[in-house]
Amino acid sequence: MSAELATLFLTAYLLGSVSFALVLSRLGRLPDPRAQGSGNPGASNVLRLGGRALALATLIGDVAKGCLAVWLAAQAGLSPFQQAWVGMAAVIGHMFPLFHRFHGGKGVATTAGVLLLLSWPALLIGALLWGLTFAIQRTASLASLIASLGVLPWLAWHQPELIMPIGLMVLLIMLRHRLNILRLLAGTENRFRR
């Protein structure tokens, strides 16, 4: 691995390690999202804790981390395949943030940021699946799982060079949702009220 590539991976990881959910919750005087609601430091839980504007800002910030990591890799002249791996470093940083004792989020929004620059049609498919699932079930975790899995067929058909790094991001998202999956199967997962 070249020094430049290693620097990009480290930079992307550190970008991902900035938890907008925690920073914005503190600024907005909301409870720590790791200790309240679902316990996940992400936009959905910030919304659950009563901060609609802060939830939107958290979402934008988490998406931006993935975008910026890929943009930096593109500026360095890396191929889309390599850019996706740099993007995954940002996703890992979001999930296991150095700045927050490695207690991070699920990685859905940061992965969306990676897709925004690498494959906007896949992101559009994922966003539509998320919106439709959430509108019907009112369950953010189920919407995120379906959206994450739903981008893979399009990528496999249209951008197969991205299927390995994006597929690994989806696998990490699934693993981070393992408790949500158990609650979904048991019928006890948190739902947003209509």
Give a short summary of the structure.
This protein has 194 residues and is an all-alpha fold. Helix content is 72%, strand content 0%.
Structure, explained:
With 194 residues, this protein is mainly α. The protein is 72% helix and 0% strand. It has 10 helices and no strands. The model has no long low-confidence stretch (mean pLDDT 92).
Give me the oligomer status.
single chain
Give the SSE order as H and E letters: HHHHHHHHHH
Largest sheet data:
none
Note the gap between the termini: 50 Å
User: Strand content of the residues, in percent?
Assistant: under 5%
- Uncertain stretches of 5 or more adjacent residues: none
- Helical fraction: over 70%
What's the overall geometry?
globular
**Number of E-state strands:** 0
Structural class: mainly alpha
Number of helices: 10
Mean pLDDT rating:
92
Query: Any idea what the radius of gyration is?
Result: 16 Å
